[in-house]
Write a structure and sequence with these properties.
16-stranded antiparallel beta barrel, 18% helix, 45% strand, 453 residues, alpha+beta, single chain, 18 strands, Porin
Length: 453
């Protein structure tokens, strides 16, 4: 016990020590570069010096190889995220305490163009210890000023909140909303007018396999029903075959006013008022029962001005009931399942310090909970023997009991090297309410160091 306590105490100290050492090195390097580049102007030049432009965040150029004619290029990128997390769980008066430090993301990738600047590609992998995932694997062709086609594994164009990279999140991770409503990457075809650099009128329309590449997002129905989510993009023996292709149709439109950058949650520009309003819709005509949404909707709003940022997204999810419990066939009707909401506000101070607050809420409809409970009981009643019953009880433990899931977070970000080095500390209150059970309360502390190149 004493050794365990000592180890738990040392983990955050080691994390902070490494972080401070890196920051110190970067600070001396930045000062040296600034001293070398400084030039004392003559009095005549000094008198004609214009007003200082707004300070821009530091930008490190990526390593790029390209042909002389510009018809082919390859850019190398790397994003790393190391997280220390400590969680205290409280049910009534007692609860466990856990903490760990890990590489949450190690994501190398390459991108560029071939034959023409209009034909681009991107490949990236998640290479955290013990698992390798295919993250991005697509090609993109721009055949018109306002029209591009993307083919391969990429983000589904459902809501901007989840289309954006984790590297541009204001806090350590996404809110609980995307874990229920998505949308995660899928293999498919997307028609868009600049998914990564959207203009004033932004659109994305696509058709996809209907199977998210990772089981941790777009899993709202399964979180309640306890159905297993597939993992088709993991490069290991644990990957799952897509047992049924059921094309999912997705559309998203947003109006982006006054040049707002919707690809990041932080207001790096710090200029006058900008805003964006969008709507996303997803339809799956042949969903897997109690695992895939038949339809999802997403309403979103983002506003930025002079370093202040605000965003909100509101989701609703619908499901198809089985013709009979235990059957994968559905009745073809939309039935309300759950709704979700996220509210987030932040303020960037002098481009190096940011304060962020976020509230997230997911509510599960009572009809869906009762339907899941009845279905689970029917599955258990169909067990052939005691061994199968025990296996089913373990698999479906807790099915249909979740009423709502909540998160309240406060975080502070430091950007000593602009977007390339981010240090975050956030604390969250997490609570879940369940049927005929005590409310589960978690208090979570996270420290993050993120580097992107």
């Amino acid at each position: 016990m004493r050794k365990e306590g000592l180890r738990n105490t040392c983990l955050p100290a080691v994390f902070l020590s490494v972080t401070i050492s890196i920051l110190t090195c970067f600070s001396f390097a930045a000062e040296a570069v600034a001293a070398d580049e400084a030039v004392t102007p003559s009095p005549a030049v000094a008198e004609q010096k214009p007003a200082a432009a707004p300070e821009k965040p530091l930008k490190i150029k990526p390593f790029v190889l390209k042909s002389e004619d510009g018809l082919a290029s390859i850019k190398f990128g790397l994003a790393v995220q190391m997280v220390y997390e400590s969680t205290w769980t409280k049910v009534e008066d007692e609860g466990p305490h856990s903490n760990y430090i890990t590489f949450k993301h190690i994501q190398p990738g390459i991108s560029g163009n071939l034959f023409t600047p209009d034909f681009t590609y991107k490949f990236s992998f998640e290479m955290v210890p013990g698992k390798i995932d295919v993250v991005d694997a697509f090609v993109d062709y721009s055949f018109h000023t306002h029209a591009q086609l993307r083919l391969g594994s990429t983000y589904v164009g459902f809501t901007r909140l989840r289309m954006n990279s984790w590297t541009n999140q204001a806090l350590v991770d996404f809110s609980i909303g995307p874990k229920y409503f998505g949308s995660e990457r899928q293999v498919g075809l997307t028609l868009h007018n600049g998914l990564d650099k959207p203009g004033e009128h932004e659109y994305e329309f696509g058709i996809y396999t209907g199977a998210p590449s990772r089981p941790s997002y777009d899993a709202g129905l399964a979180k309640v029903s306890k159905e297993k989510m597939l993992q088709p993009m993991i490069l290991s023996e644990d990957n799952d075959d897509i047992d049924k292709i059921h094309p999912e149709l997705v559309g998203h439109y947003a109006y982006n006013y006054n040049g707002i950058d919707v690809t990041t949650e932080t207001d790096w520009e710090k200029t006058n008022f900008r805003c964006s309003a969008g709507l996303g819709l997803s339809y799956d005509p042949r969903p897997e029962a109690y695992r895939d949404f038949a339809m999802r909707t997403g309403l979103e709003l983002m506003m930025k001005a002079y370093g202040w940022s605000f965003l909100t997204t509101f989701w609703t999810g619908f499901y198809d009931k089985s013709d009979e419990y235990g059957s994968p066939e559905v009745d073809g009707n939309f039935n309300y399942a759950m709704l979700g909401l996220v509210l987030q506000s932040g303020y960037l101070i002098e481009r190096y310090l940011e304060i962020v607050m976020r509230y997230s809420h997911v509510n599960v409809g009572s009809d869906y909970r009762k339907d899941v409970q009845a279905r689970t009981q029917a599955i258990l009643d169909g067990a052939a023997d005691e061994a199968e019953l025990a296996e089913l009880e373990s698999a479906y433990k807790g099915a249909g009991v979740l009423e709502n899931d909540n998160e309240l977070s406060l975080g502070i970000n430091g950007y000593p090297l602009g977007k390339h080095l981010k240090l975050t500390s956030d604390v969250s209150l997490l609570w879940q309410e369940k049927v005929a059970a005590d409310t589960k309360h978690d208090v979570r502390l996270r420290l993050l160091m993120q580097m992107t190149f």
